[in-house]
Amino acid sequence: MRVKPFSIGKSVLYHLIPGAAITAMFLIVVNLANSALIPKALLFNLSAFVMIPVMFFIMKKNSVTGKVMDAVAYQKKLMIWKMVLFGVIAFLWAALIMTAAKQLGASIQDHVFGWMKDPFVLTDYLTNPERYPRYMILITWIVGLLTSSILFPIIEEFYFRGFLLKGLEKYGFAAVIISSFLFSLYHLFSPWLLLTRFISILPMTYFVWKFKDIRIGILTHVLLNLIGDSLFAIPIVFGGFQ
Contact, 230 vs 149, CB < 8 A? Predict the structure, then answer.
């Protein structure tokens, strides 16, 4: 990793800028689309592509060589079984916390962030599938599978763990806490999950920091999004095609 040093203030900004860009782009796209037939989850996943050039620009700007991938640290490769073991442990912890705190998140959303319910409730196409054409539900699911379940987690791991976590290393173990909190805060579009997300990703962040292998984060993140966002939706998505 060959990166120009940056301050904690810049680290905070670098964590939040992509989230702000996604949120702003989503609101613009929703207003432009203005269609009750297009699920907001589809519009969100398409809008979230904006994070890629934003993240790559920041990484390139801070890379000594000007190359994006030279800004990515933690490329040490553990033995495959160790990498998988730590990834699965981190996944199981996160899945347990997210499941246990599901009602808490819903309560915070209702009582504190109720004003954000429209348009930021992205699961509407699953909870109220009768509102949308079957083909639109299928398209939304496929796009989500390819983007939020696979592509975006990989990009986020390169950026948040590979690039920004490394920049916090001088704070020792506190880097794990700071990184986990700022990553949770980055999700400006779902602030009701801040506490849940923070606690959920602590082991994943720690394992990446401790063992210097970004693949642990990638495996954990992809599993979480794949199982949490995509696989559980299969009965609803394909139920209407039987």
Answer: yes
Which tens digit of pLDDT belongs to each residue from 150-183? 999 999 999 999 999 999 999 999 999 999 999 9
**What digits encode the pLDDT tens for the residues 57-86?**
999 999 999 999 999 999 999 999 999 999
Report the alpha-carbon distance of residue 195 to residue 109 in Å, rounded.
12
Q: Is 51 helix (H, G, I), strand (E, B) or coil?
A: helix
In angstroms, rounded to a whole number, what is the distance separating the alpha carbons of residues 122 and 118? 9
Query: Please, which contacts does 98-105 make with residues 24 or more away whose CB atoms are closer than 8 Å?
Result: 98/196, 98/200, 98/224, 98/228, 101/195, 101/196, 101/199, 104/195, 104/196, 105/192, 105/193, 105/196
CB 207, CB 118: distance < 8 Å: no
Which pLDDT score, from 0 to 100, does residue 1 have? 66
3-state secondary structure of 42: helix
Rounded to two decimals, the pTM is 0.94
Alpha-carbon distance of 121 to 87, in angstroms, equals: 29
CA atoms of 146 and 108, how far apart (whole Å)? 29
Q: Which residues contact 41 (CB under 8 A, 6 or more apart)?
A: 122, 123, 124, 125, 140, 144
Helix, strand, coil share of the chain (percent; to 5): 80, 0, 20
Task: Please tell me what DSSP assigns to residue 38.
Answer: S
C-alpha 7: how far from its chain's center? Answer: 24
| 58 CB-contact burial (10 Å; exposed 0-12 / middle 13-18 / buried 19+) | buried
Contact assessment for residue 194 and residue 113, using Cβ atoms and an 8 Å cutoff: no
